[in-house]
Amino acid sequence: MSRPQDPQRPLFPFGNPFRRMFPKGSNLSPKLVDLLNTFEVTLAERLKKLKPADSEHVLSLSWMRYAMESLCAIHTDIKTLITALELPVCDWDDKWIDVYLDNSVKLLDICIAFSSEISRLNQSHLFLQCALHNLEGSSKQLTRARLSLDGWRQHISSKNPRLENCFAIMDNLAETIDLPKIKNSPKGKVLMRAMYGVKVVTLFISSIFAAAFSGSMKKLMDLHVPETLSWADDFTDLQALVNNEIRNIFSSGRITALKELEGVDTSVKKLYPIVQDGHVETEVLQYSTSDLRLGTERFSQGLDLLAKEVDSFFQIVLTGRDALLCNLRVGGNVTNSVQPNDSIGGQSVR
C-alpha cells in the first residue's frame, strides 16, 4: 500500500518475479504458448476498455460498476484457461493450491466489506426520502426535513469498521503477490503467470474501491509489473490515469470521491439553508427539491447496480473455490467443475 510521503513506492523491490517463474531454457509447447497469449491479449483488451475516455468519469458509480464487471470477466477468463489446460488437481503443486485457497478467502472478505459499505450508503436513501417527503409540506414539516438532512449527513460521515479489515487484507495480498517458483511443469508455469495477471488487476480495482469508499487516497496502491508482459503498458497507463485522478479529487478538498454521492451532498448543502430559514421562497425550494430528488435517484440506482456486480464477483470467487475443494476431496479433474459463467446469476450464499 502506498504511503502519503511516498506514493510511488514499488511493491516488487526484488526484481522481476518471472525470472524465477520462467528461467532460461524452459520451453512451452505451441499449444501452451497460444493459450497464454490468448489469455494475456484478452486481459490487455479488457484493460484498454476500462480506461475512461474522460477522467471525469473515474469513480462514477457507472464506471465502478463496469470495473467490477470487467473483473468478473477476467476471473471467468482464468476459469476458461484452467479448463483448456486440462490440468488435473492431482497434478497441482501444494503451493499452488495453498495460494489459490488463501487468496480466494481474502477476496471473499474484501467483497463482504464492499457489500457492507454499499449497503450502508444505500441506507442513507431513507433519510433523503423522508426529507423529500417533508419538503413538500408545511413549515412544521420543513423542520422535519431539516432533521432528516442532519441525519443523512451524520450517516454519511460515519465509518464502516469492516473496511479497516479490508485494508489489512489488501496489504497482505500485495506483500504475497509474487507467486511460488514452478518446477518441471509447463502447464503450471502458464497457470501461475496468468494468475499473477488476475491478482494484479484484482488488487488494483480493489484499491480503487477502497479509496472511494474510505474517502482517503492513502488506500491507493501503485503496482509495478514486469515490462516484458504484453499487458504491462495497458495496465500502467490505466493505473496512472485512474490513480492520478483520484488523488486530484481528494486534493481538491472534496468529502468523497464518489461522483453521485458528491452530487447529492452538493444538493443538500444548497437546500439546507433554505429549510433552515424561516422565510422560504416557493420557487427556490421547489427547484432545490427537484435537484435533490434527481440526485438521490441517480445515487440509489447506481448503488443497486454496483451491488449486483460485487455480488456476482463474490459468486465467481466462491464457486471457483468450491469447485477446487470438491475436486480435492474426490481426486478428480479441476476442469470438470470449474467452468466459465457457472456462477454468474447464481443464488446468493446462505
Description:
- This protein has helices at residues 18-21, 30-50, 61-85, 94-134, 139-157, 161-175, 186-214, 232-251, 259-276, 282-330.
- The protein has 350 residues and is mostly helical.
- The chain has a domain at 18-123 and 164-256 and 320-336.
- Helix 2 (30-50) packs parallel to helix 7, helix 4 packs antiparallel against helix 5 and helix 4 (94-134) runs antiparallel to helix 10.
- The two termini are 33 Å apart.
- The model is unreliable at 1-25 and 332-350 (pLDDT under 50).
**How does the helix and strand content classify structurally?**
mainly alpha
Spans of at least 5 consecutive residues with low confidence:
1-25, 332-350
Helicity, as a percent range: 55-70%
Look at the structure and give the mean pLDDT.
82
Strand fraction equals: under 5%
The succession of helices and strands, N to C, reads HHHHHHHHHH
What is the 3D shape? elongated
Q: Total strand count, please?
A: 0
Separation of the first and last Cα atoms: 33 Å
The helix tally amounts to: 10
Question: Biggest β-sheet: count, sense, barrel?
Answer: none
Taking all Cα atoms into account, the compactness measure Rg is 23 Å
Transmembrane segments: 190-213
Family: Belongs to the ROH1 family.
Keywords: Membrane, Transmembrane, Transmembrane helix
Subcellular location: Membrane
